[in-house]
Design a protein that fits this description.
Number of domains: 1
Helix content: 40-55%
Order of helices and strands: HEEEHEHEHEHHHHHEHEHH
Strand order of the largest sheet: 1-2-4-3-5-6-7-8
CATH class: Alpha Beta
CATH architecture: 3-Layer(aba) Sandwich
Largest sheet: 8 strands, mixed
CATH superfamily: Alpha/Beta hydrolase fold, catalytic domain
Number of helices: 12
Number of strands: 8
Radius of gyration: 17 Å
Length: about 260
C-alpha cells in the first residue's frame, strides 16, 4: 500500500449529531465522490485508488463509526444507522449530494443510503455486497465469528478475500482490524444479517452499478441482487472481494467513468 503524504495532509474530522466525531481523507476537486470501506477496515482501504481518481474528481474516503479514527460505537448500529451517519457526515461537509461507492459491508451501506436519501446520491456504485438468506447467515455464523471475532489475521486468512497479499498490506489490514476490534466487527455482521438488501435495492432510483470480483466469495449474490433490482453488473476478472486492493487502476477507471456519466448538470 502507498503511504502518500498527499493523503496525510488531507486528514479531517467532523462532528455528526448522534454519531460522534468522524474521520475522513479528502483530496482533489470537482465532482464529489464518497468512498465507504468494508468491515474492520478504514479510509486507507482506498489509498491506492485515491491518487488515480484525483485528476478527475474530489475524493472523500470516510471512516464509518467504530472504525479507523472515527469515534467508537456506543450502541448497536444497523445498516440504516450507518446510512444515517453518512447523511450527517455529508451535511457536516456542506455537501448536498455526492457520488457514493461502498465495498462489502460498505456496499450494503451504499445501497441503504441510496434508498433512504435519494436526493443526496448522484450515483451509487455498490461493490461486493453479501446477499444471503437468514438460513445461510445462520449456517455460516460460526465462520463469521471466526473471521471477525479475532482481529489479527495471517496472510493466508487475508488471502481468502484479497487476491494480492504482501507484508505492508497485511500490516495495514491488521492495524485497521485491531482499531475496530472484534466486538464492532461482529456487530457489523449482525447488522448485515438483519438488513433487507433486496428491499433496499428495489428502492434505488438513482443511477447505480453493481460490481463483483470474479474470485469473490460473495459473487453468487449477484443473481439475487439483480432479481431484486435491475441494476447493471460488472465483474472484475482479476479481483477477489476487494477490487480496490486487487486491481486499483481498473477499479479507479470504472468509478471515474461511471461518475462522469452521471455528473451534476
Amino acid at each position: 500500500m502507498s503511504n502518500s503524504p498527499l493523503l496525510a495532509a488531507h486528514d479531517g474530522f467532523v462532528s455528526v449529531h448522534g454519531h460522534g466525531r468522524q474521520h475522513y481523507l479528502d483530496a482533489g476537486s470537482g465532482e464529489p465522490l464518497v468512498l465507504i470501506h468494508g468491515n474492520g477496515a478504514s479510509a486507507w482501504q482506498y489509498v491506492d485508488v485515491i491518487p488515480l481518481l484525483l485528476p478527475r474528481m474530489r475524493v472523500i474516503a470516510w471512516d464509518m463509526p467504530g472504525h479507523g479514527d472515527s469515534d467508537p460505537l456506543g450502541r448497536h448500529y444497523s445498516v440504516e444507522d450507518y446510512a444515517d451517519a453518512l447523511s450527517g457526515f455529508l451535511q457536516a461537509l456542506g455537501l448536498a449530494s455526492a457520488h457514493v461507492c461502498g465495498c462489502s459491508s460498505g456496499g450494503s451501506i451504499c445501497a441503504a443510503f441510496a434508498s433512504r436519501y435519494p436526493a443526496a446520491v448522484r450515483s451509487a456504485l455498490i461493490v461486493e455486497p453479501a446477499f444471503r438468506s437468514e438460513t445461510e447467515w445462520a449456517a455460516s455464523w460460526a465462520q463469521v465469528e471466526a473471521d471477525f471475532g479475532l482481529p489479527t489475521q495471517t496472510a493466508q486468512q487475508m488471502g481468502e478475500r484479497v487476491a494480492k497479499v504482501d507484508e505492508p498490506r497485511l500490516a495495514r489490514w491488521n492495524i485497521d482490524r485491531n482499531k475496530a476490534g472484534a466486538r464492532t466487527m461482529v456487530d457489523v455482521m449482525w447488522a448485515l444479517r438483519a438488513f433487507d438488501l433486496g428491499q433496499a435495492a428495489k428502492s434505488i432510483r438513482c443511477p447505480a452499478m453493481l460490481l463483483y470480483g470474479r474470485r469473490s466469495p460473495t459473487i453468487h449474490g449477484q443473481e439475487r441482487f439483480q432479481a431484486a433490482a435491475h441494476i447493471p453488473l460488472q465483474v472484475m476478472e482479476g479481483s477477489a472481494h476487494f477490487p480496490m486492493l486487487d486491481e486499483p487502476a481498473a477499479f479507479a477507471e470504472v468509478i471515474a467513468s461511471f461518475c462522469a456519466k452521471h455528473a451534476a448538470a
